[in-house]
């Protein structure tokens, strides 16, 4: 009972805290994160979704719905363009679940899955901004300016957060 | 692989794509044409903004303590530099007071209420930055409840940093000058040269490489030199006149060699915005 309660209320609360931290970290470290010629976007909320699949297993069917909800908030509150992350975040969860089934779960396979997920998110964000004429950058620009630094930032965050969050999940499911 | 694109999945994918593009184009239309987003979106954003402020509190605490330590280390040099500036500033301030008084008297004589240079300053805090490489956009903690309207200019530190792009009740989004968005950055500005002549124009873009603002389509013969001051002209929209933008960095011709293009060094640091001032014009808007 205690396990179910901790997970039931802990998961969404922490999900939204990561969502807020993405924006707050961006605002607090603007000169470091968004300094031309690189732009690192913080997608800690995506990491939290990946961690949930990795540590809780792929059988949680509510996860896609939570991903869609948090994607909707991300779209409306941060970008103002609805219809991008509301679909991309559930796709990320599905991809992670496929990865979970295909690879043995370990630190390294988690790193690989995050690599794929962040690439998907960055590409989707670029395509959406291009379609809506919010940017005129080319794909080559995008790879160097956005994808590389964003991957570096989020993979580093994954490495730092892996063991603390594993402990957190152990505690939440104890 | 053949199984992957089974009929049902294909249909779901295509429907998903169509819905996604539909929502995106709807959002863009709203963003471009309406003064405020739909009621429900505003309400959602207000609720989310409230949570954002709660989470931002501890982060701001940590950041402030770090920056106060680094400020302490620079204090001696800064103090020396500031002492020199203060002496000049006192003179300028007294003169400014005299001029403002004179201006007021002349305005009452002419029965003018508010001219383009009058504006109310509204201070706001940046609570989040869009985690996206393509939208240089920040969220501030004041909204339509405080009198903010779409397209109002936003200042930070020494000069202009952007404009209001979306207004909710208690928070709003600011599009920074460094945005490469095709619809952004259309500020009406004027350059005053050494002999007091003014040249009007419009900001046409931002050069990320050199960190400079571009001002294009200028066909004047008036001489503009490096170091000339650029400010908003207050023509059109909700923009007051006389907001400082920066100084001219270089002049040249545009890609077709017909009009001249002027590069401007922005006075404010666009890449680091934590407190902003929204300038609310007192004179009636033309929109």
Overview of this protein structure:
The complex is a heterodimer of chains A (174) and B (287). Chain A is mainly α. Chain A has one domain (2-172). Chain A is built from seven helices and two strands. Chain A has a two-stranded antiparallel ribbon with strand order 1-2. In chain A, helix 1 (2-28) runs antiparallel to helix 3 (44-56), helix 4 packs antiparallel against helix 5 and helix 5 packs antiparallel against helix 6 (107-131). By secondary structure, chain B is α+β, with helices and mostly antiparallel strands. Helix content of chain B is 34%, strand content 30%. Chain B is built from two helices and twelve strands. Chain B has helices at 7-33, 39-109, and strands at 119-129, 137-140, 153-156, 159-167, 172-176, 188-192, 198-207, 212-218, 229-233, 241-253, 260-266, 275-281. In chain B, the strands form two sheets. In chain B, strands 1-2-5-4-3-12 form a six-stranded antiparallel barrel. Chain B has a six-stranded antiparallel beta barrel with strand order 6-7-8-11-10-9. In chain B, strand 10 (241-253) and strand 11 form a beta hairpin. Chain B is globular. Chain B starts with 6 loop residues before the first helix and ends in a 6-residue tail after the last strand. The mean pLDDT of chain B is 83. Classes of the chains: A mainly alpha (174), B alpha+beta (287). At the A-B interface, helix 1, strand 1, helix 4, helix 6 and helix 7 of A face helix 1, helix 2, strand 1 and strand 2 of B.
Which helices and strands, and how do they pair?
The complex is a heterodimer of chains A (174) and B (287).
Chain A: H1 2-28, H2 30-33, E1 34-35, E2 38-39, H3 44-56, H4 63-79, H5 85-102, H6 107-131, H7 139-172
Antiparallel strand pairs in A: 1-2
Helix pairs in contact in A: 1-3, 1-4, 3-5, 3-6, 3-7, 4-5, 5-6, 6-7
Chain B: H1 7-33, H2 39-109, E1 119-129, E2 137-140, E3 153-156, E4 159-167, E5 172-176, E6 188-192, E7 198-207, E8 212-218, E9 229-233, E10 241-253, E11 260-266, E12 275-281
Antiparallel strand pairs in B: 1-2, 1-12, 2-5, 3-4, 3-12, 4-5, 6-7, 6-9, 7-8, 8-11, 9-10, 10-11
């Amino acid at each position: 009972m205690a396990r179910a309660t901790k997970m039931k209320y802990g998961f969404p609360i922490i999900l939204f805290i990561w969502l807020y931290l993405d924006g707050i970290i961006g605002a607090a470290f603007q000169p470091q994160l968004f300094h031309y010629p690189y732009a690192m976007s913080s997608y800690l909320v995506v990491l939290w979704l990946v961690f949930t699949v990795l540590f809780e297993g792929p059988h949680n069917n509510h996860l896609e719905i939570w991903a869609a909800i948090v994607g909707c908030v991300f779209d409306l509150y941060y970008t103002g363009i609805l219809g991008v992350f509301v679909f991309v975040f559930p796709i990320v969860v599905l991809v992670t679940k496929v990865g979970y089934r295909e690879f043995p779960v370990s630190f390294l396979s988690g790193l690989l899955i995050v690599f794929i997920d962040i690439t998907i998110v960055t590409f989707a964000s670029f395509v959406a901004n291009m379609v809506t004429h919010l940017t005129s950058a080319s794909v080559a620009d995008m790879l160097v300016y956005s994808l590389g630094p964003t991957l570096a930032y989020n993979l580093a965050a994954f490495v730092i957060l892996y063991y603390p969050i594993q402990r957190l999940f152990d505690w939440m499911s104890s | 692989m053949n199984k992957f694109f089974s009929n049902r999945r294909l249909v779901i994918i295509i429907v998903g794509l169509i819905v996604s593009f539909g929502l995106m184009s709807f959002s863009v239309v709203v963003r471009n044409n309406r003064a405020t987003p739909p009621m429900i979106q505003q309400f959602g954003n207000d609720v989310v903004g409230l949570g954002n402020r709660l989470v931002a509190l501890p982060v701001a605490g940590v950041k402030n303590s770090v920056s106060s330590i680094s400020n302490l280390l620079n204090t001696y040099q800064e103090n020396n530099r500031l002492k020199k500036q203060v002496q000049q500033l006192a003179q300028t301030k007294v003169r400014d007071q005299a001029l403002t008084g004179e201006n007021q008297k002349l305005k009452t004589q002419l029965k003018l209420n508010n001219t383009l240079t009058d504006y109310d300053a509204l201070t706001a805090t940046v609570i989040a930055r869009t985690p996206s490489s393509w939208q240089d956009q920040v969220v501030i903690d004041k909204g339509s409840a405080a009198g903010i309207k779409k397209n109002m200019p936003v200042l930070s530190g020494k000069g202009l940093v952007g404009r209001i792009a979306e207004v909710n009740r208690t928070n709003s989004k600011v599009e920074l000058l460094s945005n490469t968005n095709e619809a952004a950055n259309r500020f009406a500005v004027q350059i005053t040269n050494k002999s007091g002549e003014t040249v009007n124009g419009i900001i046409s873009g931002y050069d990320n490489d050199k960190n400079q603002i571009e001002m294009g389509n200028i066909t004047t013969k008036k001489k503009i030199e490096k170091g000339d001051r650029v400010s908003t002209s207050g023509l059109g929209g909700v923009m007051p006149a006389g907001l400082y933008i920066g100084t001219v960095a270089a002049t040249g011709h545009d890609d077709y060699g017909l009009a001249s293009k002027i590069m401007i060094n922005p006075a404010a640091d666009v890449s680091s915005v934590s407190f902003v001032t929204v300038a609310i014009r007192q004179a009636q808007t033309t929109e």
